[in-house]
Amino acid sequence: MSAPPASEPARVAAWDLPTRLFHWTLLILIVVAWASFEFAEALGDETLVVHRANGLAILTLLVWRVLWGIVGSSTARFASFVSGPARVLSYARGLVSGGATPFLGHNPLGALMVIALLATLLAMGTLGLFATDDNDLVGGPLYRLVGEAGNARAARLHDQIFHVVLLPLAALHIAANALYTIVKKEPLIQAMIRGTKPAGTYADASRAEIPRGAGLRALACLAAAAAIVLGGILAVGGSLKL
Questions:
Q1: How far is CA 122 from CA 60, 64, 95, in A?
Q2: Rounded-to-10 torsion of CA 155, 157, 163, 166
Q3: What pTM value is reported for the model?
């Protein structure tokens, strides 16, 4: 008589669906932002319509994440995972010694990475609003609000931040997630897909608190984010014409 199959370990909620959709959608949009600029001529998009529309989408998504960091599920709220220097150092020491307790949501070092990535992308997106391309064929929605020198400076910083800051941060983020998944056996990547983690002892919470009607709340935040970004551009005299 064959033995009954082993039951799957109990799992608990770690990430709500809106947070997971944000994570993977942002990744796709960043790749599209790079490809739509690098291969604009090959795609027949000399005026960077796709790149500019994609930039507005990224800015809207980033503002959504800020709002969701206030009213979203427990693991998505900034108040639940942003730590002070003492806690970050304590976690780092425990990580080196092998005694760090896992976190259900972002650990203190991961929280620093999240904030750094969000700040970097917000800076790039904001600069893109004022930038013009190399041939001055087209500019961001707010390029007319600054002079040519300001346009050139914004474009230069936009490019420099991408290569000098964003790419290294992204590489470090990917490497850290792979290290945690493969070496420490913490299913960070799987959790951002499935939304759950194995039940266990976590330093921050035993399970995520996902509010009732999270989907509708997330949609309301998305509408507010679009109003902030697109309405803000129009309010200061910018143009949304692509």
A1: 10, 12, 30
A2: -110
A3: 0.92
